[in-house]
């Protein structure tokens, strides 16, 4: 019977207290003993604990005896809040019937609060609004309850007020889940359809798929089949999360669990695929997920050329756990063999780099991030270019289009001016503004993605003392005056340092790179010319001077006049040589 099952997730802006709230719920229901309890109990990766953010969605089963004396099975899926991991949130929502919307009592409604809320409403989930951190001296629970109430169309009194850190009123959330979140459909007798909403790789059990059983029942003796890849498997193990993996004999409709498939490669078990029983398959799969579109691209190269195969295997295993990561082989004259990888954002790229270095112990080099451009050629073909090295010859290009984003910035009204200045300097176009709460304004802009990916978020936080929040969605491709900026060392172009830039920014960016390289390139026995080229001409140049012969090496002590004589002689010879080169 599914009457006593509840599936829900926790959604919120980053750092509003999702993982801490999950910890308290685990404690209250006894899913984790006091001895095993740690902060961020569901965040298993070291990176998650260090950065204090959730990167991967995690699932856990809790048992709760409600006020009506009935015991309920509550399945919680803890989701990330950072804008780069919105795709993880969208997958978790498909496995739930309800969502707890957590809002910080000091900061109020932020950009990702709205973005995640709209995703939950589109997935037709029951929303349980919660205000967290009411114990802080700067908390404004009454004001924030008014804002959340008007946003959801509910009375402010219906918004729960809790402190996850102090454990104040947390049990009211469990009661609200039991009362407000609908139970899943009872469909044990129908053909099996289970949605794979996440996965990870285990060295002994192969691919471990996280599933939500929508219809039917999974037994450990069943032979299962994947719809997308049409692969049959006999489970190595099936089980539930409590919160560690605990084997069971069967998983019924409405429940969340895992299946150790025994598959050894990524391609055999895809997130978003549907599992069914091979002997009596369902007629059609469940609706899967939209394919995530990478926004930021960078080259990944092993520092040691021999590590190329290991790097490919590590990227494949990461891709299993993170479907939004894409990669394909590429070659660079300067860096050798590597991969061109696509990420959802800069934070996503940073996490992937750290996971490669920590989990797979590889030394890797990442090139400067770029975005994907569309190039219209003279043959009327549209070519996708995600690496500046792939840009066709200028004579074959009609126009270059770049991706534009819709961005929403929510900020206190005091910082209206600095934000306007920041965005307009980066070719942003102001669209509209709204006031979701007194003294807070939501500013909507259109801006090129290339202007956002590098340091826009850092600048936004510093100009608003950390109070502004940002959310962005892809808008469209637009043509503009874009050209390739190349760096040449002694006349040889370095493809790893090439970039696609706007015509008006080419000179400044080129000069900045040349100045930096002049200091970084070690001096040789000859002059090294470092040049920046754009639009078919050299726009900046610097020379790394040749090292001079140490004529004093053989002088041990003695009269200083002898040393001066040798240095003067060398200086004259150097000037003569330079005059000869100039002629």
Provide a compact summary of the structure.
By secondary structure, this protein is of the alpha+beta class.
Kindly describe this structure:
The chain is an alpha+beta fold and 583 residues long. 25% of the residues lie in helices and 33% in strands. The protein folds into 6 domains: 5-180, 3-Layer(aba) Sandwich (Rossmann fold); 193-277, Elongation Factor Tu (Ef-tu), domain 3, CATH 2.40.30; 296-369, Elongation Factor G (Translational Gtpase), domain 3 (Alpha-Beta Plaits); 374-480, Alpha-Beta Plaits, CATH 3.30.70; 482-544, Elongation factor 4, C-terminal domain (Alpha-Beta Plaits); 549-583. The chain has an 8-stranded antiparallel sheet, covered by helices on one side. It has a 6-stranded mixed sheet with strand order 2-3-1-4-5-6, with helices on both faces. Strands 21, 22, 23, 24, 25 and 26 form a 6-stranded antiparallel sheet that branches. Strand 30 (528-534) and strand 31 form a beta hairpin. The longest helix has 23 residues, at 560-582. The N and C termini lie far apart (93 Å).
Q: Main β-sheet: number of strands, strand sense, barrel status? A: 8 strands, antiparallel
The multimeric state of the shown protein is single chain
CATH class of the largest domain: Alpha Beta
Overall geometric form: globular
Strand residues, percent: 25-35%
- The helix/strand class is alpha+beta
């Amino acid at each position: 019977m599914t009457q006593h099952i509840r599936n829900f997730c926790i959604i919120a802006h980053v750092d509003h207290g999702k993982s801490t709230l999950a910890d308290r719920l685990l404690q209250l229901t006894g899913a984790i003993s006091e001895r095993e309890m740690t902060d961020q109990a569901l965040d298993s990766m070291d990176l998650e604990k260090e950065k204090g953010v959730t990167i991967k969605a995690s699932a856990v089963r809790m048992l709760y005896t409600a006020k009506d004396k009935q015991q309920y099975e509550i399945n919680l899926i803890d989701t990330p809040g950072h804008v780069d991991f919105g795709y993880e949130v969208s997958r978790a929502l498909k496995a739930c019937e309800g969502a707890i919307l957590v809002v910080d009592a000091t900061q109020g409604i932020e950009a990702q609060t709205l973005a995640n809320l709209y995703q939950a409403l589109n997935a037709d989930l029951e929303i349980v609004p919660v205000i967290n951190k009411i114990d802080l001296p700067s908390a404004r629970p009454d004001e924030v309850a008014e804002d959340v109430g008007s946003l959801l169309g509910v009375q402010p009194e219906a918004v729960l007020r809790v402190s996850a850190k102090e454990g104040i009123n947390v049990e009211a959330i469990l009661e609200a889940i039991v009362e407000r979140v609908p139970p899943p459909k009872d469909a044990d007798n129908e053909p099996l359809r289970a949605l794979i909403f996440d996965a990870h790789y285990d060295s002994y059990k192969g691919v471990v798929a996280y599933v939500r059983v929508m219809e039917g029942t999974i037994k450990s003796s069943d032979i299962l089949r994947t719809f997308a890849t049409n692969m049959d498997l006999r489970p190595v193990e099936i089980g539930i999360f409590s919160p560690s993996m605990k084997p069971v004999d069967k998983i019924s409709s409405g429940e969340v669990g895992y299946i150790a498939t025994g598959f050894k490669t990524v391609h055999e078990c895809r997130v978003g695929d549907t599992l069914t029983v091979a002997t009596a398959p369902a007629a059609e799969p469940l609706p899967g997920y939209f394919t995530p579109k990478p926004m930021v691209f960078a080259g990944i190269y092993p520092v040691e050329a021999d590590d190329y195969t290991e790097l490919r295997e590590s990227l494949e295993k990461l891709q299993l756990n993170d479907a939004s990561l894409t990669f394909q082989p590429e070659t660079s004259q300067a860096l050798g063999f590597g991969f061109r990888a696509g990420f959802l954002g800069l934070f996503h790229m940073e996490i992937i780099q750290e996971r490669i270095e920590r989990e797979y112990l590889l030394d890797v080099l990442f090139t400067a991030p770029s975005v994907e451009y569309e190039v219209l050629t003279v043959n009327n073909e549209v070519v996708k270019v995600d690496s500046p090295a792939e840009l066709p010859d200028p004579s074959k290009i009609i126009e270059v289009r770049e991706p534009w984003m819709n961005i929403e910035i929510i900020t206190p009204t005091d910082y209206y001016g600095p934000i306007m200045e920041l965005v307009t300097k980066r070719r942003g176009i102001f669209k509209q503004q709204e006031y979701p709460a007194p003294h807070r304004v939501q500013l909507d802009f259109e801006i090129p993605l290339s202007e956002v990916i590098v340091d826009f978020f850092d600048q936004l936080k510093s100009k608003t003392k950390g109070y502004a929040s940002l959310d962005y969605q892809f808008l469209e491709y637009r043509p503009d005056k874009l050209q390739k900026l190349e760096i040449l060392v002694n006349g040889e172009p370095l493809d790893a340092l090439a970039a696609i830039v706007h015509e008006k920014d080419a000179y400044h960016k080129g000069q900045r790179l040349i100045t930096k390289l002049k200091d970084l390139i070690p001096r040789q026995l000859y002059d090294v010319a470092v040049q920046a080229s754009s639009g078919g001409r050299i726009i900046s140049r610097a020379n790394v001077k040749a090292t001079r012969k140490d004529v004093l090496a053989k002088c041990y002590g003695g009269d200083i006049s002898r040393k001066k004589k040798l240095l003067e002689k060398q200086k004259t010879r150097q000037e003569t040589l330079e005059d000869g080169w100039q002629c």
